[in-house]
Amino acid sequence: MKRLLFLLLFSSLAAHGADKVKIGFISTLSGPNASIGTDIRDAFLLAVKLNGGKLGGLPAEVLVSDDQLKPENAKQIAERYLQKDKVDFITGIVFSNVVMAVAPDTIASKVFFISPNAGPAPFTGAQCNPFFFAASWPSEAYSEAAGQYMTSKGIKNAIFLAPGYVGGYDAATGFKRYYKGKLVEEMYTKLGQLDYAAELSQIRAAKPDALYVFLPGGMGINFIKQFVASGMSRDIQLVVPLWGSDQDIIRAVGDPMLGLFSVGHWSIDFDNPANKRFVAEFEKEYKRLPTGYAASGYDTAMLLDSAIRKIKGKIEDKNALRAAIRAADFKSVRGDFKFGKNQFPVQNYYLQLVGKGPDGRIVHKTMGTVLTARGDAYVQDCKMP
User: Which residues in 257-280 are b (16+ Cβ under 10 Å) and which e?
Assistant: First the structure.
């Protein structure tokens, strides 16, 4: 497997101990869903660059590898990072099934696993662990927000559609927790599927009032194109999580995205200094607008920067480092940021509308708050002190 290596080292770098911080970054960087991992990687590396190549004052060495959306690949990469490279953190992973393959070995090695995206439900409750943090969201929360929005709009019947893997099943659980109308059908597809003709035929026959679709990356791009082409978008309200209508999909689909509703923890129009800087610097560096994936990748790096700085670079002190990460003493692009007892974020989720900004570009517009200071449904099962 081709290994991508990004070394962000400066002349002050020494070869021992805490004279540097070493990050093992594993992500999906090839295939139909490569845009997700690419955005997380690019934003993480941007944050390091803006910090002068450092995290918390320590020169940062970021080792980047492509898991190809294969849990067995990710597990092998993680083993090498842990045993040979002796990384201080592992991060970057996109999909829940890959997290479940990598996180157990990481936390068993007493290395901090910081998720910039997937937040599998098992780690929010009884399996919570001092070495597992999610800088993104619990995997059910976005779909809880979608269910709450549909309920508040009085939508009487809906269909749920997602890939049949850990993240998809978590999404279904979250959606059903908050949606109080009739769930006509739960539909599960193959992870990575790109042709939805059969599913669209089923949806047409069922005639739901609304459709909630959890399809990240290339899956979402293809579904929306096919859904709009089918003509059903005129009669069925489509609601998606942020990543179902984000810039990676907008770039691929274009004007048919206009008028689509989504729910998310972040939006490009958030009016805070950290977000304004992030959006401007990301576009300047990469010549494209950032996604929610990028926002969480950037926040992950800034979280680590704040924690390492707080303990003055003494990353070998695991207890102090954990406490510093939990403090989350940094300016998040999403605004207020804090961890719950289980080390998952407690945050707001917003309703967004895809429209055109003042410059004519297609972007998200924040319409209101759907859930306020939402953590997750399992924190009470976490016995971690």
Answer: beebbbbbbbbbebeeebbeebbe
